[in-house]
Amino acid sequence: LAAMLLIAAAAYQYVPISYETVANASTQTRSLDLSDGTHLHANVGTRVSVRYTLAERHIRVEGGEVYIDAAPDRRPLIVAAGDAELRDIGTEFNVLLLPDVLQVGVRSGEVRLNATGANAPAAQTLQAGDTVLLSRADARLLRRQQVPASEIGAWQGGVAVMHDTTLQQLAGYLALYRD
């Protein structure tokens, strides 16, 4: 009986205590202040779900682009996008999930990136100004580069900044803005 109570108490930490979803049309952006003080800004055509438990904070980016200003908390913030998992280390960062690629950029602080897939790179720590582009097909690292931190999340001010982007990637990004 004691063992069952201990298992039940441990499992209780992972029962969702808060759940929210955001699904934006191609003409709207949305800001969301979460219960822990984390701020999400979801771009057009974005689908995001948020699930908090007593032990962890989870954000799943199902498509589109979201800028996350993570609030400090004793619980880790874990962001899932495609086959990659990001673990916040007190930061502001942008996640762009398109049909073919995943792009992560850090504006301030650090994010731990761990991707799974046939050609996934080793886990990486991204710092302010770092951007990483991964293939969604096999998690292959397509590009890692340093950009001015002010360019990360610039879409919030109505500016789209692209570096060494293929036409296919640009078309995928622009598709967020169309039905």
Structure in a nutshell:
The chain has 179 residues and is mainly beta.
Any overview of this molecule?
- The chain has 179 residues and is mostly beta strands.
- The protein is built from 2 helices and 11 strands; from the N terminus they run αβββββββββββα.
- Strands 1, 2, 3, 4, 5, 6, 7, 8, 9, 10 and 11 form an 11-stranded mixed β-sheet that branches.
- Strand 8 and strand 9 form a beta hairpin.
- The longest helix has 11 residues.
- The chain is globular, with a radius of gyration of 17 Å.
Q: Total strand count, please?
A: 11
Helix amount? 10-25%
Q: Which runs of at least 5 residues are low in confidence (pLDDT < 50)?
A: none
Tell me, briefly, the overall form: globular
Mean pLDDT: 89
Which percent band covers the strand fraction?
Answer: over 45%
Q: Radius of gyration, rounded?
A: 17 Å
Give the helix tally.
2
Give me the secondary-structure topology.
Elements: H1 2-12, E1 18-23, E2 30-33, E3 39-42, E4 47-52, E5 57-69, E6 77-81, E7 84-97, E8 101-115, E9 124-127, E10 130-135, E11 141-146, H2 167-174
Parallel strand pairs: 5-6
Antiparallel strand pairs: 1-4, 2-3, 3-5, 4-5, 5-7, 6-7, 7-8, 8-9, 8-10, 10-11
Keywords, separated by commas or semicolons:
eleven-stranded mixed beta sheet; 179 residues; 2 helices; mainly beta
